[in-house]
């Protein structure tokens, strides 16, 4: 495993990273190195993003853990290059995390990253809206999503994966309030409660992460959340 100062990491390690990752900082630094090299080569990260990998992507994702209790099962929908699931898994090894991604090349990347970093996550290929996928991966205490879809569609896709009284945490930008106003009714129809805006990383990040939190208030088809083994597919 490379150290935080290893080759390939184009961005200096910010002080906030030391606060967020603590003893796991070398693993986070290696992830940044992989993104800056292989992630760019494979088209998962744009070259212009390399200088802001820490602030805009990795730390932005990791601080989501502030709103996830210890030992919970988490499904990260549309993990893509690994956000927010990989940084969250690095910062919070107590969590049981499933990375759900529909594209084969991204699934391959996520699996390679998990193996390289030694992360106990499960990588699954599929779409959250597919019934066969929902049946296969079951429900979780928390479902996360970043840059996947507008709030209405996200609620329709993701809330069925949330156990009753569990939470959907959607990473959003400055338009979060407008999305809530526009999609509140659709969220309720999908089985969600009142969407609430939360800030993560306040006092640590220069720009805190904006998250829309939605509680699952209606139980869907009968199903029991199962604790699955932490394996990679």
TrEMBL record:
Its EC number is 2.1.1.-. InterPro entries: rRNA_ssu_MeTfrase_G, SAM-dependent_MTases_sf. SUPFAM superfamilies: S-adenosyl-L-methionine-dependent methyltransferases (SSF53335). Keywords: Cytoplasm, Methyltransferase, rRNA processing, S-adenosyl-L-methionine, Transferase. Its main location: cytoplasm. It is found in: Cytoplasm. It comes from the Bacteria. GO terms for cellular component: cytosol. Transmembrane segments: none annotated. S-adenosyl-L-methionine binds at residues 78, 83, 128-129, 146. GO terms for molecular function: rRNA (guanine-N7-)-methyltransferase activity. PANTHER family: S-ADENOSYL-L-METHIONINE-DEPENDENT METHYLTRANSFERASES SUPERFAMILY PROTEIN. Specifically methylates the N7 position of a guanine in 16S rRNA. Belongs to the methyltransferase superfamily. RNA methyltransferase RsmG family. HAMAP family: 16SrRNA_methyltr_G (MF_00074). NCBIfam families: rsmG_gidB. This is Ribosomal RNA small subunit methyltransferase G. It comes from Saccharomonospora xinjiangensis XJ-54.
